[in-house]
Amino acid sequence: MAGWSTAITSVSLVEEALSAIEAREEELHSFLTLLPDAVEAAEALDRDRPAQAGPLYGIPYAVKDNIVTEGVRTTAASRILEGYLPPYSATAVERLQAQGALLLGKTNLDEFAMGSSTEWSAFGPSRNPVDPSRVPGGSSGGSAVAVAAGYCRYALGSETGGSVRQPAAFCGCVGLKPSYGRVSRYGLIAFASSLDQIGVLTGDVRDAGVVLGAIAGRDPHDQTSVDAPVQDYLAEIGRGARGLRFGVPAEYLAQGVDPAVRDEVLRAADLLEAQGLERREVSLAHTSYALDAYYIIAPAEASSNLARFDGMRYGPRAASDELVEAYRATRGEGFGPEVKRRILLGTYVLSAGYYDTYYLRAQKLRTLLRREFTEAFDAVDVLLTPTTPTTAFRFGENTEDPLAMYMADALTIPANLAGLCAISLPGRPAQGLPVGLQLMAAPMREDILLRAAAALEEAVR
Ligand code: GLN
């Protein structure tokens, strides 16, 4: 975290955070749980500060409530996990704690990370700090709000199809989705395991690099975590982006993208060229199928992952003398409407008569999309696109129409299906609302991604 002087105490940062929370939290509802002893924890960190304290030491941060934290209530914003106290912390959280980071609280989300607005939280939505009549995006909406409202410098979120980048775009902060396997998923409550990844929300690109550096790397608890070297991302950013090649695929500027958003992306492309990046033509012809493939694969995996929530091991259990009836009643009461919709969709596409028609075809499409990206990344180092087709929408605008809600992720989902790394950073606002600029890079090339993102960030200011 560049520029933080050791003269700043953790206590003063926590007090600042608490007064920002005091001023706006009643309206914004970023947190589901605030740690009652944050000031005491900060005092202890200040007292024990080592001479070689790292950049995250004593800095308050927040964690999306689908990432488990030892002894701190974790709900995934679902009634079915109400009152759950995890016996361990996620690896990403462990790594931050080991660096002396200070956990402020757990943030709101769409139930089990299924949604794009936090309107599907069982505990009420969060509000966008830029315009509280609008959604903050989702599903990591609470984390984006915490950063954008100045409660804390960074927050962890999670991505399955855009849940870090989309709320970052709506709230005007930076959202980084690492490559699949870059960060351990151990302790992230599973939604769709082949897509899920922990991500980072911050105020700027450098902070995203610092936090990524702290949480990334192989973890024996997650067999899909990749044993690739974790770079010094600040040093990488320091190398600049001159000479990198980029492309703006036309498919990402097509129908459904707000003209103001498109114009801002085109302006960003000019700025990248002015920064010394080289522009190349790229085409990603299968882009429009990504959303369809995702809404088969993600629900399929969710229907299996969520089978464990039956009232036997976690959360409240509906009263019944009969086992199957107890499952039925617990799940009927415990899950909200969007989660039920996903379980139904997933069970359907995996069922004997439909597996080949839906699930298998979606997997084939996923392979095609991956190949197409591999080819594109032969020609360019990074892709520049909008993060979302529109700016933040109003409450209730999309809750009656699941398809309209799903469209919010049309431009972020391809990166999840292909396991790429991707980032959203704020461009120039349109009609007072933040616009997200997205960059994507090949799997495990966070170094290139962050170099290009820092150059763009500097240019758009
Ligand atoms: N909004 C998408 C969904 O509802 C993505 C969610 C996510 O990335 N967790 O599935």
Notes on the protein architecture:
The chain is an alpha/beta fold and 461 residues long. The chain has one domain (1-297, 381-461): Amidase signature (AS) domain (Amidase signature (AS) enzymes, Alpha-Beta Complex). It has 15 helices and 11 strands. The chain has helices at 10-28, 38-47, 91-98, 141-148, 165-171, 205-215, 233-238, 259-274, 290-305, 323-334, 337-350, 355-379, 402-407, 413-418, 446-460; strands at 31-34, 60-64, 102-107, 154-159, 174-177, 197-202, 245-247, 278-279, 382-386, 421-426, 436-441. Strands 1-3-2-4-6-5-10-11-9-7-8 form an 11-stranded mixed β-sheet, sandwiched between helices. β7 (245-247), α8 (259-274) and β8 form a beta-alpha-beta unit. The two termini are 19 Å apart. The relative contact order is 0.14. The model has no long low-confidence stretch (mean pLDDT 96). The structure holds glutamine (GLN). Glutamine (GLN) binds next to loops.
